[in-house]
Amino acid sequence: MGVYEELQARGLLAQVTDEEEIRKLINAGEATFYIGFDPTADSLHVGHFMALCLMKRLQQAGNKPIALVGGGTGMIGDPTGRSDLRTMMTTEQIDHNCECFKKQMSRFIEFGEDKARMVNNADWLRDLNYIDFIRDIGVHFSVNNMLRAECYKQRMEKGLSFLEFNYMIMQSYDFLCLYEKYGCNMQFGGDDQWSNMLGGTELIRRKLGKDAHAMTITLLLNSEGKKMGKTAKGAVWLDPDKTSPFEFYQYWRNVADADVIKFIRMLTFLPLERIDEMEKWEGSQLNEAKEILAYELTEMVHGEEEAKKAQESARALFAGGVAAQMPTAILKDEDFKDGFIDVIGMLVASGLVKSRSEGRRAIEQGGVSMDQEVVTDIKAGLTREEIAAKEDGIVLKRGKKNFRRIRL
Predict the structure, then answer these.
(1) Which of these, 238, 331, 333, 359, could form a disulfide with 353 (CB 3.0-4.6 Å)?
(2) What is the pTM of this model?
(3) How do beta strands 13-16 and 117-120 pair?
(4) Are 222 and 55 in contact (CB under 8 A)?
(5) Phi and psi (nearest 5°) for 128?
(6) d(Cα 172, Cα 259) in Å, to the nearest integer?
(7) Tens digit of each residue's pLDDT (9 = 90 or more) over 341-384
(8) Residue ranges of the alpha helices (H) in 214-355?
(9) What DSSP assignment string belongs to 238-277?
């Protein structure tokens, strides 16, 4: 099985421009491909995980990755998937974030001579002459076609700034520059980037008369169609100072039963034959599958030592004395409002607090955690479906010693 067929078998492929050509190139290890990362924070997060794993798989097959950090495009901001304008960052913030990215990426791909390279599009975007650029590059883009792109459609009602309207042209220009400088013949990215990626292949065809290719990977969604990577605390970061290895491990250990095998298939490097056998698992075996998923991903991001520590801590908590003696609270229909219950409601229903005002104060003082994550948002909560998906229930903690397991 070639790497292209493996990507298909793992459910990672979404759209491709020329399937046969892409299959041939990456199976032969002849692709020089890039994936873009906008430096909007000083850490990568779970939303970047699919792209990092893809880069690793393709490099192992002999292909050459280019990690393109958007030191230039980051000064504009990608409008894709957003309803508002991104906060503007200084060049110093952007450059700092780019340095942080490379350190984290090094856990996934190998940088060096004739291996992976990191490139910053600030090198060719920040000093562009505007008149020269729109004469040389802008002439190849149809405004009518651009406005039909999904990344712009969703912004038209609330207002799309001219600043953001330039993003597709900038990303397309990136592809052209990488093609000319490094022989980059492919761009890979999330499925929401398809319109921007097609702009790049078309610009290369118009400017150079050459063929370049694009392939999108499946977005990481749970069984309810929601993007993975968010918790009551916010994003799940790859930086251990932002999301500890234990919190990272627990995030994956607590995925729904319906999602665990899919995530193992998409994100881990376990053999497909083994995963096919795991498809038959049910009941308590799914808890074992969740441990496997959590350990494999934590090891990939934080190393073997931290993965072992996180696993041991989780087992000590949930298989040891605390879990064995933990009182259980059963939620009733009247505890939910429109199928949703907030954490304050769970605290009251469990008996950990006597009133909603007491629960609000406990959260504001940082004294409440849910599944080992400190709750900071008083509006945080879960739907009935999310609670039902947790076979072991939800573990609430108030203070150091007061635990309750919450379930339906």
Answers:
(1) 359
(2) 0.73
(3) unpaired
(4) no
(5) -65, 145
(6) 35
(7) 999 999 999 989 999 999 999 998 888 888 777 888 888 899 98
(8) 245-253, 257-267, 272-278, 285-302, 304-318, 321-324, 343-350
(9) SSTTTS-HHHHHHHHHTS-HHHHHHHHHHH----HHHHHH
